[in-house]
C-alpha cells in the first residue's frame, strides 16, 4: 500500500491551554512495498507520525492517503476500522498488550475483531506462531509463562494475524539482546521481501536503517527535515552529526579513510558495502604493482 | 479525560498556592461546615464574597472553575430539580399536580442547594488546583499523626499514598498505550451496548494489572536496594512549616464564621 | 590487587524451577575496577547482580562485600556499600519530585534534615540536574530519570555501583550521556563499577568482562581478548564491534585481516598501510 501525507499537522489537546503541536506540515510519498525508517530524537514526533497512519490519531489539518483510504480531520471512526485491518501496528514493548489465557486465543483476537470466525482465526493463529519462529506446541500455553522476547513474538504474531499490508514497527527491538534483535530484524526483512509488506520502522538503530531500510524520514521538533532513499539521507554524515544523530559506523570509518585520500563511490553505509569497495581497491593495488 | 479539571494541579505562584497544605485542608473542611450553616441571603452573600476573594487571590481564572463544574452539572441539576419538585409544603404554592408540589419554600430551598453545590465544588477545586497532590498527601498524613497513638500505621499509609500519586501519570500513559494497541487490533472502546463495552475493558484491564504488578515488584526491589526497611524508622526530607500567612488566613475565616453566626436565621 | 567483592560457589534457584538460575559461580571484583558482566537475556546475569546486594536469598555459596560476609544479619550493612541502578527508569523512581527521590535513600538511613538538604543539593548538582530539582518524574525523559537514580546513589556515597542493564531502555544520546556520567562519578567518587550489559560500548569501557551463560561463568577476560572472538560474540549475548563485522565482510571477499581485536583507529591504520605501502 502506498502512503502519502499532504501537509499533515497534528496538535495534542487542540483548543485547550495544554495544546502541543507534535507534527507540523508533514508531506511525503512512500511507494507501495516500501521500507521506510523514521529516525529522530525522542520527542521529535516519530511515534505521533506513525499513529496517524492507522488513524489512532487523526490529523488536525491536512490529508493522509493510504491506497484508497483518505483520512482527514473529519473522517469518522466507523470509516477507519477497515483501514486498521490493513495497517498493522506493533507498539513499543508490544508484549504489554497480551491478555488472553492462551497464546492461540491472543493471536486470534485481532482477526476475530475484524469478523473472522473463531475456527479460521485459530488456524491462522497457529500459522502465525510458526511465522514468528515459535513452536506450535506453545499455542495452548499462557502467554505470561514466556520470556520477554518470546512474549514479544506472540504480540507480533497477533498483529500479523490481521493480514496487514502495512506493518508499523515502533522500536521493535528495544530491550532485546543482540541475537534477539538480529532475529527480529531478519523476520521483518523476510515479511517485506517474501510477502511484499510495506514496512514503516521507527528506530534509533542507525545500523539497522543502513542495513534494511529503503527510504528514510528524519524528524526534528515535529517537522520532517529530510526524506529520501538511504543514500540521500545518510550521504552527508556532517549534517547528521550537526543534528546530533548517530552516523552508521561504516560511514564513520569510511569518512576517516576519506581524510587520508580514499575515494568512495558512493559513501558506504554498511560493513558489506565498505568491504566491497575496499576489495575493489585491493584488487586494483594487486594489478598495479604485480 | 483531559477536559476534567477537578483534581488537577495548576502550578502558579500565589498566596493560596503557598499556604500550608494542612491549613488548606482544615480550612476546606471548616468551609463546608460554614456552607451548611448559611441559610439566608446575607450569609450566602458573605460566602460568595469569600469564595470569589479566595479565587481571586489564587490568580487562577474563573473560567477554569466553570469548566471544572461542567462534568458535575447533571448531578447538580438532578438534585436541584428533585428538591424543587418534591420539597414539603411551605409558603405559597405555585403549582400542584398529583404528588408534585412547587412551593415558594421549594424554590428558595433548591436555589440554596444549587449555591451550596457550586460553592463546595469551587472551593475543593481551588484546593486541588492550588495544591500539589504530594502536598495534599503530606498534609493529610501530618494531620493524621495523632492516630499513631491508636496504632494506625500513619507513615506506611502516607508512603503508600505518595507512591500511588507518583504512579498515577505513569499508569495513565500505560493505559493510553494499551488502549491504542488494542484499538489497532480492532477493539472499539466505548461503542456498542453495555455488555460489549464491559467486555472491551478486559483487553485493557488485564494488561494494565499485569504491568502494575510488574512495576510494583520492580519498585519494591529498588526500594529495598535503597535501604528501605519500614516507614516508621525514617527521617523526613519534606516538612511543612506553618507560617504567618496561614495564621492570618485562619483569622479571616474565623471572622467570617462569626459573621455567619451573627447573620444566620436561627 | 585488593578484592572488594568475593563470590564463592554461588548457586540460586527460582521457586520450583529445575534448572538453577546460577550454578556454582565464583569470581572476584577488584577495588576500583570497572567490571562488565555480559550474557544473553535469561542467562542469569541479573540474578547474579541482585544476589550481590542480598535482594535474592541464595541457597549455596558465599558473597563477601568489603570484608563483610552477606547474611540476613549483615544485609543492611552490605547495602550501605552498594548502589544499584535498574533497567526501567520509571520503576525505581520513588519520590514525587527529583529532590524527594534523591532524598529517599537518606531518609531510609535516618539522616537528619539539616544534613540531608546539602547532600541532596550536591548530589543533584553532581549529575547536572539542578534545573530539574522540583520536577515530577512524568516530566522527565528516561535518561534524566536514570541521572536522578545516580544522584540518589551519589547522596549515600557507596563504594560500589551496580548497573543492571541501566542503559538498555535509553535512546543512543541518553545512553552515551549516562556512560559519560558514570565514568565521571567513578573518578570523582572512587567507585567500583559493575555493569550488566549487552551494549558493546559499555563493555568496552570495562577493565574486565565476565561472560555468563546458562547460569555459569564461562569466560573472564579483558575487552580486547573478548572482542577478538569476532562472530562468536553474538553467542555470548554481545553485539559485534564494527571492526569484527568489517573483518568478516572482508574475509568473505578473500582479504585476510589480522585476527587480534582492533579498534576502529587501529583497523583504519592497518587498511591504510596495506593499501598504500606497496
UniProtKB/TrEMBL annotation, chain A:
The protein's role, per its UniProt record: ATP-binding (A) component of a common energy-coupling factor (ECF) ABC-transporter complex.
EC category: translocase
Family membership: Belongs to the ABC transporter superfamily. Energy-coupling factor EcfA family.
Superkingdom in the source lineage: Bacteria
Name the record gives this protein: Energy-coupling factor transporter ATP-binding protein EcfA2
ABC transporter domain location: 3-246
Keyword vocabulary terms for this entry: ATP-binding, Cell membrane, Membrane, Nucleotide-binding, Translocase, Transport
Location in or out of the cell: Cell membrane
UniProt source species: Levilactobacillus tongjiangensis
From TrEMBL, chain B:
Transmembrane feature ranges: 44-65, 72-95, 107-129, 149-168, 247-263
Keywords annotated in UniProt: Cell membrane, Membrane, Transmembrane, Transmembrane helix, Transport
Membrane topology according to the record: Multi-pass membrane protein
Pfam families: CbiQ
Domain of life: Bacteria
Keyword Chaperone tagged: no
Subcellular location: Cell membrane
Entry keyword annotation includes Transmembrane helix: yes
Function, as annotated: Transmembrane (T) component of an energy-coupling factor (ECF) ABC-transporter complex. Unlike classic ABC transporters this ECF transporter provides the energy necessary to transport a number of different substrates.
PANTHER family: SLL0384 PROTEIN
Summary of subunit composition and partner proteins: Forms a stable energy-coupling factor (ECF) transporter complex composed of 2 membrane-embedded substrate-binding proteins (S component), 2 ATP-binding proteins (A component) and 2 transmembrane proteins (T component).
Family, as annotated: Belongs to the energy-coupling factor EcfT family.
Protein's name according to its UniProt entry: Energy-coupling factor transporter transmembrane protein EcfT
Organism: Levilactobacillus tongjiangensis
